[in-house]
Queue: 4 jobs
Job 1
Amino acid sequence: MTITNTTRMTLKAIQSGHTQIKGVVFDMDGTLCKPQTWMFGQMRSALGLDKGIDLLTYVHSLPEKEQEEAQEILRKIERKAMVEMIPQPGLNQLMDYLDVKGIPKAICTRNFPVPVDHLLTSFLPEHTIGPIITRDFMPTKPHPAGILHIAEQWGISAKNIIMVGDSIDDMEAGDKAGAATILIESDVNDHIKDVLQTDVVVQRLDEIIFCIENGFDTKN
């Protein structure tokens, strides 16, 4: 595997052998599959929300009947995005490596279960991934509860976990849980690269192999 120049410059925390990685938690949208940023614009438009309002926080604040109606609006858009999924470069290379090393893999996403199942059956049918945390698990990211639940299920400390994602919610959730954080760089998340919650930035998923092989310290 070739590490890109961008990755070399952003691996600020690399220190050989400091963090033993025993598990990796992945976001889904924009992490395991390529970003579909149009999806969130359609969701906000359908619900009449400004950009500064968190979608799921708003939906969960609604009365029960209205909440289910809003959830179905989101699910309809997510189903549309589901059929257009494209896997991230390096996805299977990283998963194969983690299998060889015996490192467990999990998903912590704010999506609903159907698109997650579609991704697993379409792109990762030979890999075991679990637990799977969707937005049915409360509270959702950026709260660390999902990651801490995964760590408990695995029987390991969150300090030995990497949270891989593409959003500030992913970075904050991982950081609050005490995990290391890796940001998958895209053309819409440049502003997250230098925040304190982001430890390492990569352009491809298989670049994470370099991080695990060489070890790295978190910023905190």
Job 2
Amino acid sequence: MTVTTSSFSRLRGTAVTARVGVWLGVAITVCFLTGLISHFSQHPQPWFLAVWPTRPVWLYRVTQGLHVISGIAAIPLLVVKLWSVWPKLFDRPVIGGITRLLERGSILVLVAAMIFQLSTGLMNIAQWYAFRFFFTTVHYAMAYIVVGAVVVHIAVKLPVIRRALGEPLEEATTDAVTGPSRRTVLRGTWLAVGLATVVTAGQTIPWLRKISVLAPRSGDGPQGVPINRSAIAAGVLRSARSPDYRLTVVNGPTAKSFTVAELAALPQTTRSLPISCVEGWSVNAQWTGIVLADLVAAVGGTSGADVRMISLEPPGPYSRTTLPARHARDSQTLIALKLNGETLDIDHGYPCRLIAPTRPGVLQTKWLTRIEVVT
């Protein structure tokens, strides 16, 4: 079958653009809203801390999984939408009146911002940081630019969108038409979206793991859980294994220090909790350790206090984190010593680490050395 230039022209049109655009809009909306949750989970504001719950424990796993899945699904949708309008991008006049200027400007900003967001998002889930900026803050700021450009674009093109969605997909013609149709283009688009999802979503959806051949995280790793940052990269190999190691719990003037053996001698609790990373991967695991609230109580801390976690890792963006009071007092929140029945691997935070529900993996502080009750 030969597809000529005229065939491509016949396949393009507002009917295809509008239908693909609707689903691209849905993907952008889901990605934006779940991205806000991810950002405020990592950089919490007081209003967010007041509403973000600890139940269900898999909540962040779902929202961040949806964020990455919808972002990947948006890629083929954006490609097809750009293909469907490509010749119109070069229509004359280039500038025209105010309405046309707004339309062209919103398209330019939208396309550039979308390409930036999707490309850097893919690089982030692959942990390929070729860029020099801090990903989370730039990605967050650019998300508002994308949404703003989408709103302007829809406002300008709304009459055209309404008309296109009300028209039949195929143009009426008396000529014999051979080759693919616009309906074929849409079916191919849905197939591409489905395929892109299936081959990557296994890092979030366990039953897709074996067929998600392009998922950045397969679920493999020490003790059956992937890692993002190793002990070598964190520079804690010697300090974490030192016989002088102590975990110090502090509440104002009151402090208690524990050796690894003393921590293991305390009452132990096992919880089934997912660890969910901002890159989209998540794994459910069995964690065994001391309920954090018990350690806080041991130094006279109250259930209404936030708790600061300090790692052996040198100071950096996530080596010092604050756990909100709601999470600190939750009985599911542990200072874990074991993972899936085995002593924590050094890359998973030995001698002990935080594991709390509905919290990004980057904030589940590893290689703990100090816990401070915030007064």
Job 3
Amino acid sequence: MSSTNAHRNELGEFLRARRGELSPRQVGLPATGAVRRVPGLRREEVAQLAVISTDYYTRLEQGRMQASAQVLNTIARVLQLDDDQRDYLFELAGKDTARPRRRARQKVQPSLQRLLDELVTVPAIVMGRCQEILAWNPLASALLADFSQMPANKRNYIRLLFTDPAARRLYDDWENVARTCVAQLRMEAADSPDDPQLMALVGELSVQDDQFRQWWGAHHVASRSVGSKTMHHPVVGDLTLDWNALTCTTDPDQQLITWTAEPGSPSHDALRILASWSTHHQQPAHDTAD
């Protein structure tokens, strides 16, 4: 047997052993109550969580497929491999074992923060990589969510959409909003598909939400520019707002997102009422932790 074939056989054995150690409950899959012939995860369950086809994963285990580093990273995350196990997986697959470097946490650009502070009657946030919310003004907090009550590492727009029931109720067409955000995140992934922050976010939401997993696997892409959203706000009622994304020239990974209404419209009046309401419920407008 050639060295290449031996490595592929060992790769399959290694993957089978690792998935055999995990239960559906450990990876966030619902228990079906059905009796399993063998312990551990099934191939189709690993493929589902990795957002690849069952046939692709089966051929990988059988030594008939060479996977990319991106797919191997995803499988390593799904199987909850430690660093040594991940390195061994990459060695068997003949890939560079260098781990993706975690980028430093972004901080809002001072010029964007000053602009944000001046926007009193316009809801606005600063969005960073992976749709992380870096800063916001009080009106955005009143419109969308109280970001100050969220841990800094959980302030994320797409996570909010899929995990917060209030966010699902806020948008008139939540499904279209959420699909678009998934497509925008997929577009961003083209620049750094192995980014650990991105991989962790996709893994978390893939386990928690079937729709996210399905839409992420569809590989649709979209850019973030302009649009319109209808909202059902619990304080001021229905709103139709135009949103705009302005990219920061000093850091293209940061965008100022604003929501505005046609002057003189009911939505414009409602925003002014919400602005007044928010002054009496004001929260810190950005993360002050270093």
Job 4
Amino acid sequence: MKITVSKFFTLISLLIVLNACKEEAKPNIAEGSDKKIEIVEKPDLFYHYSIWHAFVNKIFEGDITAGELKTKGDIGLGSYNFLDGELIMLNGQLYQAKENGKVVKPSDDIKIAYANATFFDTDDTFNLQEVPDYETLRKYINEKLPTKNIFYAFKIHGEFSKMKCGGLHKQEKPFDKGLDYLIPNRPIFERENFTGTMVGFFCPEFIGDINASGYHLHFVSDDETFAGHVMEFEAKNLKVEIDQIHEYQFVLPQTEEYRNVGFEKEFQYKKQ
């Protein structure tokens, strides 16, 4: 078959275009000292397993594992099945704050009843020298937020002269007590003069029964021996990092208990 000059140049042009498209499809690569490093953007997504209204109505078992949750974010909070410990995730490491005050690193196959998570990507940061209480921290953060109509994640590291954290008592089936009873009667742990990190989220008021609105923070100490749900504190030299989140995903449990639950009880736990 003969190839005319015009067909030859058409073929060459097509190959050039295809090659250019191929070049544009390459991943974003950063040059390292001895190797190339692929840069992967973190998703701007708030991942939420189960819903607050189900958790309030005694859905204390889920079907997601700790290993699966690690694929949904690198910071997070929540609770393990049977309320067997507060869940804290910091920099991809999961912690389990037990009702007796012990902090452990759970295995990847442990199951989770409720969780919030995201891949943290700092959009804003500021420092606070003295913070006498939780309410003052909320006030400072409120002044920095461009709007309260989106979601936010936080990493807040500092020195704590006092910290009060709450847990939950482990439950056994049949579950006869809801959060309206369990939270006011929760175990409380206190510690003084140490360092650590608070992680958590802000949800707008319109979130309704899907999640708890307002601020929700959990804590883990730098020595990994003290953790739980943040109730109150005194701190200094806080570094506050904020991540704005514009997408929200919630995944519902695929369990018999969830399919059959009624949503009679209502309970919002905003401040603590």
